[in-house]
Each structure stands twice: as structure tokens, then as C-alpha cells.
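Hi there. Long-time user, first ticket. I'm pasting a complex I've been working with (about 498 residues overall). I'd like to know whether the download I got is complete or cut off, because the file seemed smaller than I expected. Thanks.
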Amino acid sequence: MNPRNVGVIKNPDGHGTVGNPVCGDLMEIFINVKDDIITDIKFKTFGCGSAIATSSMVTELAKGKHVDEAMEITRKDVADELDGLPPQKMHCSNLAADALQAAIKDYKKKK
Amino acid sequence: MDRIYLDHASHMPVDQRVLKIAEPFLIKDFGNPSSLYSAGLEAKQSIEESRAKIARFINAENEKSIVFTSGATESNNLAIRGTAFRNLKDGKEVLASAIEHISVLNPMKELQKNGFTFNIVPVDSNGVVDLNKLDDLLTNNTIVTSIMYANNEIGTIQPIKEVSEIVHTKGRYLHVDATAAAGRIPIDIQKDSIDLLTLSSNDLYGPPGAGVLYVKPGVKVQTVMPGGGQERGLRSGTENVFAIAGMGEAARIAQKEMRKENARLEKIRDKLINEILKIDQAYLTGHPKQRLPNHASFRFSHIEGESILLNMDMYNIQIATGSACSHKTLEASHVLLAIGLKHEEAHGSMVITLGHSNKIEQVPVVVKAARETVERLRRLSPLAKKR
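Hi, the file is complete. Here it is re-exported in full:
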């Protein structure tokens, strides 16, 4: 277990939060964007091993991508990139793509 | 790093001495105990010897009161469904504490679907059964009340003697699941007036695949597994001679060595609890004093239990958690919710259950790993305050 891109960006260009600690998963993603390219991305996650793994993977997938391209990253892409998730974890712990999309929407709104 | 196994409530190794007694029944001394030739009679004999050892272990008045099953889940099912269906004319109410094992709660929920009334007795924040509520919920129609001797997730030991006195004022049968308690604290059926008691072989360092339901003479129970009529008709199916012979020996050894071994484990437990509670926002779950000698359970704020488990595994330390994420159902532990924890608190639990292989020298290694794990996961967590 060695997650990448852990942390917070202060005054980020975009910020997305999904999930709920009551259910056991909460994810936050922070992005900095230059010329519509994601130049920096960080996450914080409260959740199980799958939740942490998907958070880390989505940040790796999105880094350096155009925001429109990053917006297309799906839950399935993240799970596939991790060589699959346990079936019962596909729903609850696979929120990372949603968090990324929330961050990109936040960026577009602010722009 | 050598593996440190701290999940004995979940599974135990089989004691070498037990295996030596039991192993021949698999290969050399095999025979169906129902057969009348010598091989069968010898197998039968070994079952009866095991029965006697287990009767002594719990101070049962009669060897015949010991019914062998496949394990604790089956014993719980037989105790609950067996008495509920046998005594239909006398009432259709069942009662259990909120922290019973799922193999007690689910059979009761099943009865509820079939027209029974199922009430749940709450526990306090230490996990002790509310005796006043127990008294309130009991009626003359309560056929069976299930209160576990000690809880596997939080280690709390129940005041069974008082429970027994209350149950017997109005209700009929007291069933006690002693899976976690047996071998850890002495059990005396007669002193506590217990009607039905569940034991598991593996939880005594015996082979998995055998369990016991003690049925007090006079208790009316019917089989939930009809068939060839083994075990006085209460549990059909060819006996697992290997596991049963092993279980008897495991109980004999436990009875002999329990006091010394548990004093040893208690020292390790207390040191672990002292040290782990020094971690920021770490809390003990379960009763601080009335707890099993091998049991230390905690919760840590702002982090999640499955991540704790996986992170500890990277140190080759095997622990358990009551986190929802680690369960097949993805539901938070009903035990932790029953003692009043919020969902997000219940997610951050770590359960340690000690056994033969654990030594006091392992404590600093475990504490260091736990501290690093908690700090690491908090750095990841959006809920932790310091950013």
C-alpha cells in the first residue's frame, strides 16, 4: 500500500468532495490547472483499502491530462487500471472518478 | 519480519498435543461410530471419552447433556430454533442481547419472520447487558433468552449469574454462547444455572469442524437436522470423530492450563492497552475491567478499520476490525453501534485477541506498527484536523 499524490493543495483551482464518513468513505480531490491541463493533483481519503487505491489511481490517471479528457475518466477505467476491485467494493469504494469530476466542475465554474 | 498473529477470536491453530490424540482417527483408527464391529465401537468410545472431558470442563451434571455439532453456529441454531419449535404451545417469544453473534441474531430474525416476537436487550457503553431492560422484556411466553458469556469483538464479560436469576423468574430457557469465553474464564453450568450453552472446538485450540451444545436435563429441544438420529436424535449425521476427539482433549488441556496461561496473556493485554491508548485519539472499546484476559479492542478517530488491517498486515501483524468495509454485508459492526458509537466511529476499530504464540516482547513491535499506521492513515484522511 503506497498511495501517490496524497495531500492538500492550498487555494486550488478546483476542489471536489464525495461520499460520507457515516458510510465509511469520504474523498476529497484538489487540482491546479494551467491552460486547461491538470498540472497538479492531490487527494485525501477516509475509507478502506479499495477507496485509497482508487483515489491514488485516479490522480495518476488525471495528472497532465486536459480537463475535458480527465472528465471522461470513468469508475470502470479506475477499477480496470487497478486490475479490478472486489465486486462488493465496486459501488461504495469506487468514488474517485466522481470526486475528480466534481473537482473539474468546480474549476470550470470558477473560471 | 516474523508474523505476529493477533486474531485468535477469528481462528486458532490446533494444539500439537490435540492433533496427536485426534490424528489417528483420520487414517489408522477410522470407523463409523454407528457401526457395530470393533472399528466402529472404538470410534464411538473416543466420542464418549470426549463427551466426558467436555462435561468436566463446564461442570455439567451429566455427560449425556453434551451434544456434538459441527461448530458454534450450528449449536446456536439448535439452541434457538430447537427450543422455539419444540415449545410452540407455551409461547412464541425470543430474546437476545444487542451484541450477540450473528449466528444467534439471524436465527431469531428468522423466527420473527415466522410469527415469533423477537426483542433485543440493550447494553451500556461498556457492553454490559442492561439487567433492568432484560427484566422488563421477559414475559411468561419467553421461551429462549440468549446472552453471550463474553463478546468476541469488545471482550466484555456478562454477569451471567445475575442474568440467569432474572431470566428464570419469568422466562423459560437461558442460552449462553460461550464461544469466546470458554478457555478464557472458568465456566460452571450448575453454579450459573444455564440451560443451553454453546462451545466451539477451534476456540479451545481444537480442530475446526466440531462444536457442542450443552442441553440441561429436562430442557425440551427438537432437532433442526433430522436424519439418522445420532446424538440422541438431536443432531443427525455421521460424527466428525477426528474433530470431536480433538475437542475433548483441547477442553481437558484448557481446563488444566487455563489459569496460568490467562495470567500470562493478561499481562500482555494490559501492556498493549496501556501503550496503545497513548496514541492520540485512541480509545478502548468494551469494559475496562470485566473483559477477557486475551482481549484488547480499540477505536481510532478519523481513520477506517480495513485500512488499519491492511496497513498492519504490511508489518506482518494480523489484526481484526469491526469496520463495515471488511464485512461481506458492508454494514458497520452491530456490536460497536450497540455500545453507542456513531457509524464513523465504528468504522475505525481494531480488535486484538491473544493466544499461545504471543509474547510480551511483541508488544513494542505491535505498538510501533499501530502508531505508524494510525499516523499514516490520518495523513491521508480528510477528517483529521491537522492539515
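A couple of notes from our side: Chain B has 13 helices and twelve strands. Chain B touches chain A through 26 residues (CB under 8 Å).
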